[in-house]
Amino acid sequence: MTGAELDEANLTNATINRANFSRASLVGANLTGVQAGSVNFTLAEMKGANLSKATLSSSNLSNANLENANLSDAKLESVKLIKASLLEANLVRANLYYANLAEADLTGADLSRANLDGITIKDANLQGAKLRGVKLSRYDLSGMNFAEVDLGAADLTEVNFRNACLQGINLERSGLQRANLMNVNLINANLKKADLTDSNLYGANLQNADFSGAIMPDGEVYKPKAFEAELRQQSASLEKAIPTTPKIIRLDEVPAPVGSYNQAIVASGQMIFVAGQIAIDPRVGTIVYTDDVAKQTEQVMAHIKSILAAAGASLENVVKTTVYLADMNDLAAMNAVYSKYFDDATAPARVCVQVSRLPKDVLVEIDCIAVI
């Protein structure tokens, strides 16, 4: 059947063991319940085909086009799906025991409650795919792209996600005990009620990640603090003294600034002393971006902005900063980020020094004084 034109064909419950459908066109074909053990479907065009409850064990579907195909409840043990296109395909409850999905495109595919035991999934594209309730414990998924993937209630015990992109991922109620999440991107991730007991989050980017009700690595349940209420209360209690516009001092006979700062600031009013801030995520108590001074500076400035907001101030009210660097060679990289937060014309006075060591061995620490 090599190259055969079988679009919309009805092969319901047919037995086609060891047949050759290489390069055949089966667009929209009905293969419900078909028995197709050891069949060759390489490079076949099967877009929109219905293979629900089909048995395709040990068949070869490498490079086949299965976009929008229905493979729900299909038996796909030891099937080769190498580089196959499975965009928006339905693989709900499919048995993919020891299937090979290397480099397959599973964008938007639904593999909820599928049996993924022993599968090969390295370098597959899973962006936006649904894998709810699957078991991937102890799998090596390091460096893979799981952006926007739905892994709700999945068993991910001891999985290796190191350096993976998990941006926007849904991990609600998933089991991540002893998982390796080092340096992963968890921006906007949903980890509500996930179990992260003994997992490793060192260096992970947790910006806007939701840990509501999650069991954290130390075994404690994460309870979001009522930050907004606190900020409103603190802001209301801080009466603004004498609102003034800081006066900038610039003298020709004094060395000109070589960064985003001024020689001096004249200010009066209520003073706010912000303690030194480092790039630590308070939710898990770990340092972010351990080897990137620019990204650490971004995190530090975010902390300072939040503290100033609680005091009813902003970066525009800062009159003095002190920057502590572990290595003065990082000055340019730090300054490139720092300068985004302060306009050169009105930037605060600044001191920048190299120190022998900083808390938790961070690369940069910044404190400041503001006046309102």
Could you please describe the fold and organization of this structure?
The structure is a single chain. It contains three helices and eight strands, in the order H-E-E-E-E-E-H-E-H-E-E. The protein is largely without helices or strands. It has a domain of 134 residues: RutC-like (60s Ribosomal Protein L30, Chain: A, 2-Layer Sandwich), CATH 3.30.1330.40. Helix 3 links the parallel strand 6 and strand 7. It is elongated, with a radius of gyration of 28 Å. The N and C termini lie far apart (81 Å).
Please, how many helices? 3
CATH topology of the domain at 238-371: 60s Ribosomal Protein L30, Chain: A
Helix and strand composition category: little secondary structure
Number of strands: 8
- Assigned CATH architecture of the domain at 238-371: 2-Layer Sandwich
Unreliable stretches? 226-231, 238-243
Under CATH, the homologous superfamily of the domain at 238-371 reads RutC-like
What proportion of the residues is helical, as a percent range?
A: under 10%
Oligomeric state, counting identical vs distinct chains = single chain
- Average pLDDT, to the nearest integer? 89
| Cα-to-Cα separation, first versus last residue | 81 Å
Helix-strand sequence: HEEEEEHEHEE
Q: What is the radius of gyration computed over CA atoms, rounded to a whole number of angstroms?
A: 28 Å
Structural topology:
Elements (H helix, E strand, L loop, with lengths): L226 H11 L9 E3 L14 E3 L4 E7 L2 E2 L4 E2 L5 H18 L7 E8 L5 H8 L10 E6 L9 E8 L1
Parallel strand pairs: 6-7
Antiparallel strand pairs: 1-2, 3-8, 4-5, 6-8
Helix pairs in contact: 2-3
